[in-house]
Amino acid sequence: MNYSAIMNQYIAKSDSLLKDLFFKIAPLYKEEFGREQDAPIFLFTALHSTSESILILLLHKAVFDADVLLRTVMEGTVKYCYLMSGNPSVRSEKYMEYKIKLTDIDDLSDHFKAKTTIEVLKEYSTNSLKPFECFILDSDEVLRLENQYPKNVRNELKRRWGYQTLLRDLAKRQPEYQAQIGSISTYSLTSHFSHFDWTGVSHRQKQIQEVALTGDETLDVGHALRVLSNVLSMAVFRVAEYMRGNQYNSPEVVNHCLEVLSFIAEIDKIQMGIVNSHGN
Fold first, then answer.
1. Average pLDDT score over the chain
2. Which of 54, 112, 185, 225 has the fewest CB atoms within 10 Å, i.e. is most exposed?
3. CA 147 to CA 149: how far, in whole Å?
4. Of 173, 190, 213, which one is at a domain's C-terminal end?
């Protein structure tokens, strides 16, 4: 099985579907949707852009690298969907946690990491320290953040905004997310790829050896189709929450989502055929 002969058409179709889905709801910012749109909208657009980057990687046969990037899209999508779910007061509280509280906690963490880096560079390097000095907080701000967010509070907020926790929370409230709990396995697997432990490296090795020994790219095709399926599924979830959270009704967008879902079913059928035949 030749990768490019099969995948290029599916990648091109996926790119077209993603772009059409994005532009059918543009502009994302709509005055009638109220305040606190900024963070969700920037998150939505960033996830779309990264999804496009995944398609470029797949086009160049960088399937494992695409999978690493997919992990970030999965995490960001779950965060977006979580931000957009709930009544206005609940969403406002989530907004404050995401944009303000978690950012404060990250600022504190980045401060200490930058401080350590500067100390090391002063001893071992003559490079400019300016890129790291911009993360240094004044002592009053450090004290304020440490008092406002004790370690146990920081740890709990980080835990609650983790992928599995958010996904399980969504699944409790909205049945369509229950099947997505199955994505936890994919999310975990891509962690091995991104951290380059032997589990991840050995997966790459086996797939490379398979192609080198047989010239058959079937496994790469199946892998790439699974990534495409996940990218498109995440996009549909984001659009669905955008519409539900903003009470935005568009039959045109709904019909396009159905077209995307039909295409996902098509590539999933091919993907499962590869999995079943290879397993035998």
1. 93
2. 185
3. 6
4. 173
Residue 210, pLDDT > 90, answer no
What pLDDT shows up at residue 211?
85
Span 92-128, pLDDT tens digits:
999 999 999 999 999 999 999 999 999 999 999 988 9
153: domain range? 86-173
Q: 51 and 231 in contact (C-beta within 8 Å)? A: yes
Torsions phi, psi of 85, nearest 5? Answer: -95, 150
Does 32 have pLDDT greater than 80?
no
144 and 230: one domain?
no
| DSSP line for 187-248 | HHHHHHHHHT-HHHHHHHHHHHHHHHHH---HHHHHHHHHHHHHHHHHHHHHHHHHHHHTT-
Distance CA 196, CA 228 (A): 22
- Is residue 251 reached through a cis peptide bond, with omega within 30 degrees of 0 on the bond before it? no
On whether both 206 and 252 belong to a single domain, the answer is yes
Tokens 């098509």 -> residue: 266
CA–CA separation, 122 and 129 (whole Å): 8
